[in-house]
Amino acid sequence: MKKKLFTLALASLLLMGCAGKDVKGTDVESTENAAETTEDGYKIVSAEEFYKVYGDAIPLPENLENVQYRLKTDGDQISEITFDVSGDTTGNQYLIRIKQSDDINEDISGMDPAKEIKSEHTSAHYKRFFMDYSDEVCMFIEDRYAVDDLSYEVASWDYYSDGKSYLYALIVSAKDLGDYDITPLATSFTDCFYSTLDKKLREASFDITSFPDGVYSSDFNSISNISLNDDVVTVECKQVFAEEGEIPGAMYADLDEGYAFAPYMTISVNVGEITCGKYDADGSGDYANREANCSIDDIVKSVSAWTVDTEPPELYFVVSGGKVVKLYTLPC
């Protein structure tokens, strides 16, 4: 299966947001018949039952209608959502497939590579904005296929949601797709995922004093502010990572690797309770136990003076007994 790489952006196609108050599409008009099971093993379920299985992994764009949720929890465990796009007069058929899987190379589209009829597909390159960052996001647009008297176009991608890896395949079919481009519709699904995740991260609450003893870090690029007032240093971080082990309740928001972090934390520490260090990354490790060699003013000045045209150093927080006991920096 040939794949082509492109990047996507927030607020693209169709100028649409995400459906429903909970951004999962549960109040989109849906076909609900919990007793019905299809010949191919799908159970037709309500939105609520579908999202009990998939949670925030597949929020829907807001302008979908005639939505049907097709759940499969055994066999290949590939579930589906069929839908129409409001205002669409093309007669195209729309389907998105989802599977929880650790194999990100698995093809869940159901397409036979031998049925490929088009080997070129041109897509624009976009950026998306997520957690206040501008960053490129990867998706694969696959070649067009022909099966019997229908042609198909497929977009596939994968995400991490709540620590689990999910695969997606968006499939559009018609007797003649002509010059149809699936990219805008695919982008609308990814935009909804990012906005749902960003909302979830911003509403999360983490306190570093409740973290297990250990070392935690945030690179200078993730520090939105650092200040020193009345012998209290305050650090506002977009992302805080555990150097070893895991942070309880951490979010999984890197869509390619699934790393875990605590988002949007404000860490305040009494200067009289900490030591500080500025070290070179010499590979010997155990920086947390090295002798203090600088003041908190040096730390604050280093973070404040950093500019985005250089590699961001990292600020480390050593937690022991429910307190931050040391701050130190290392170059990238």
How does the SSE layout of this entry go?
Blueprint: E1 3-7, E2 30-31, E3 43-45, H1 47-54, E4 64-71, E5 79-85, E6 93-100, E7 128-130, E8 133-135, E9 138-142, E10 145-147, E11 150-161, E12 164-174, H2 183-203, E13 214-219, E14 223-229, E15 232-242, E16 251-252, E17 260-270, E18 275-278, H3 296-305, E19 314-320, E20 323-330
Parallel strand pairs: 2-4, 18-20
Antiparallel strand pairs: 1-9, 3-4, 4-5, 5-6, 6-12, 7-8, 9-11, 10-11, 11-12, 13-15, 13-19, 14-15, 15-17, 16-17, 19-20
Helix segment tally: 3
Radius of gyration: 24 Å
**Share in β-strands:** 35-45%
| Total strand segments | 20
Q: What is the helical fraction, as a range of percent?
A: 10-25%
State the separation between the terminal residues, measured CA to CA.
Answer: 38 Å
Overview of the molecule:
The chain has two domains: 3-203, no CATH class; 208-330, no CATH class. It has 332 residues and is mainly β. It is built from three helices and 20 strands. Strand 11 (150-161) and strand 12 form a beta hairpin. The strands form three sheets. Strands 1, 2, 3, 4, 5, 6, 9, 10, 11 and 12 form a ten-stranded mixed β-sheet that branches. Helix content is 12%, strand content 38%. It has helices spanning 47-54, 183-203, 296-305, and strands at 3-7, 30-31, 43-45, 64-71, 79-85, 93-100, 128-130, 133-135, 138-142, 145-147, 150-161, 164-174, 214-219, 223-229, 232-242, 251-252, 260-270, 275-278, 314-320, 323-330.
